[in-house]
Amino acid sequence: MKVTDEILNKLIDNELNDREIKELHRLIKYDEVALSKVKAHQMVNSILKRINVELAPEDTTSKIMERISNSLLIKERKNGFFKFIISSFAFMIIFIVGYLISISGKIYVSETPSKYSEIIDKFVNFFASFNIALDNELILIIGGVLTVMLLISGYFMFEEHRSFKNKLENYL
After folding, report:
1. 39, 83, 115, 164: least CB-packed within 10 angstroms?
2. Tens digit of pLDDT for each residue in 130-161?
3. Full residue range of the structural domain in which residue 37 is found
4. Is the same domain home to 93 and 160?
5. Is 3:9 a contact under the CB 8 Å cutoff?
6. Same-domain pairing of 92 and 140
């Protein structure tokens, strides 16, 4: 038998049978290191028994769960702006692609009749109904708005990456 922490814990908890106890006492009698381990375990056990245990308040679990759910809600609110920026980009891209198709789509639809030509024709007519004249000033405004949105979303992505990196370093 080798004196291990598991065996010493079983000795303190009175989980060893008579044969194991006799064998352990024989080992302790001739091994100073094993004796010091037994004494250390017994001292820790007596100290632990003397410690007063205080019970947590009854609503501790609900308070912890409330904090967790609040932190998740705050995280969702943070991601809301990013979702707005991404959806705005998607809407603008769809609108621009649709407008470009509506300009050149009438030629495409008339040249190649197919079973999808009715759907394509409705799509082209929908975007053609907006009939926006693109001049240099409008192109500059759209480009400026897209640039500002891109810069803002880049900033938020950088900040999210930095906070993630800091949290990761704190855990490690």
Report:
1. 115
2. 666 666 777 788 788 888 888 887 887 888 88
3. 5-50
4. yes
5. no
6. yes
